[in-house]
């Protein structure tokens, strides 16, 4: 094991400097405010959870979990997502209330990185969960709310891609015969390796008709025309029900007046294995990864002893800020430079201005080596230097 450098940080960890901190706070506040307007109540859960409960319920791969032992020998994990912890809370404490429950959160998540590749091991998500509503209307609400919070953040160039995990599963199992073969083919979709997908399909011992159906599946992207094409491919009832859910969803999001932000992409699958139905990802210009994702996870609460429908989504704050570009929302900061004999006067003046809502720095002039460099940092500078009682000089 090599010796660590003095300023070295754990793999994937990042410092947040003042300008970025202020930007994050501004964007986070915009998202949270809009979520509250839609009736979502914020909740907080511990950063540490038991591996045997939340750790195993989470869809995050085991090698990405940060694990440690408590004093009693129980394995703990730093929370890798928020959906599983909120499912735990809802199942244990909230489901006795009138359903559905609308919860929101803003939290740091932790996923271990195997090598340095620019991906953070700690990042913040802002998201919502609607628990106890199994209707397509709830899925439509998630999508409309996602559009609304992104617009409120100032983002203009974005799109939601919507798929259905149930449709993909039914189509693949129907053609390939079992879930193991279906999962093998689905892996190419996880990786968005469409060349590999095509080559794998061509290598399978299938009829030419079934091979063409699997290849035609890759073209199921676009608007309402995708519904008809999908119904032509699928033969079993469960698969057709999934497509009819998407047709109903389109009508709902049209009523919300957000259809211009939406595209169907039935090749969309998620590494989050608990998704059971409609799911979506959010893409924005100049960002190579989804800035948010969500979907229906009707089976997750069963792991905590309760059975009910649920859906939600989360926005990655770091990726949203990248998509927004440079944001100059830093509040102006005033400075009062004073000589020691006028300290009392300076403290009183600073108090008055802070009460008025201004941000004010008090700086003893004897501690300033470069006066020009110091004053350039602030929006306004007041000098209280010399004998007490003099008028402030700006």
TrEMBL record:
Upper classification of the source organism reads: Bacteria, Bacillati, Bacillota, Bacilli, Bacillales
Q: What is this protein called?
A: ATP phosphoribosyltransferase regulatory subunit
Name the species this protein comes from.
Answer: Mesobacillus maritimus
Does Amino-acid biosynthesis show up as a keyword for this record? yes
GO terms (molecular function) for this protein are: glycosyltransferase activity
The text of the family note is: Belongs to the class-II aminoacyl-tRNA synthetase family. HisZ subfamily.
Instruction: Kindly list the places in or outside the cell where this protein is found, as annotated in its UniProt entry.
Output: Cytoplasm
Please classify the protein's predominant subcellular localization into one broad category: cytoplasm
Q: Which PROSITE patterns match?
A: AA_TRNA_LIGASE_II
Metabolic or biological pathway? Amino-acid biosynthesis; L-histidine biosynthesis; L-histidine from 5-phospho-alpha-D-ribose 1-diphosphate: step 1/9
* Function text: Required for the first step of histidine biosynthesis. May allow the feedback regulation of ATP phosphoribosyltransferase activity by histidine.
By which gene is this protein encoded?
hisZ
CDD domains in alphabetical order: HisRS-like_core (cd00773)
This protein's assembly is summarised as: Heteromultimer composed of HisG and HisZ subunits.
